[in-house]
């Protein structure tokens, strides 16, 4: 069974930081591009960040310079370090795996508010 389990979401004040984690199982993690998407209430799902199998990284315009994606192939995990958070970063964040088949996690809520 393929599982992508996100953790680390929560409530953080504007300007704060948060680190999301995604634990993957059930597929060959090192062969998949990993990424994060988010969806805010009433908005379409938005690309946040991606990391290739060779750890090349790419980011959505809204988060460039503030978020960092990384992966640990030994632990089958991907991370999203979020800094300088803004209220508009409030969303459900989803971990994704893209390869021969695409997989999605259930999401973790991030709320940026004072």
In words, what does this structure look like?
- With 114 residues, this protein is an all-beta fold.
- It contains no helices and eleven strands.
- It has strands at residues 3-7, 10-12, 18-25, 33-39, 46-51, 57-59, 67-72, 77-82, 91-98, 103-104, 108-112.
- The strands form two sheets. Strands 2, 4, 5, 6, 9, 10 and 11 form a seven-stranded mixed β-sheet that branches.
- A hairpin with a 4-residue loop joins β9 and β10 (103-104).
- It is globular, with a radius of gyration of 13 Å.
Q: How many E-type strands?
A: 11
Shape: globular
Mean pLDDT: 97
Structural class: mainly beta
pLDDT < 50 stretches: none
* Helical amount: under 10%
C-alpha-based Rg, rounded: 13 Å
Q: Please give the count of helices.
A: 0
- In this structure, how is the largest beta sheet organized? 7 strands, mixed
Task: Kindly report how far apart the N and C termini lie.
Answer: 39 Å
Strand content: over 45%
Give the ordered list of helices and strands: EEEEEEEEEEE
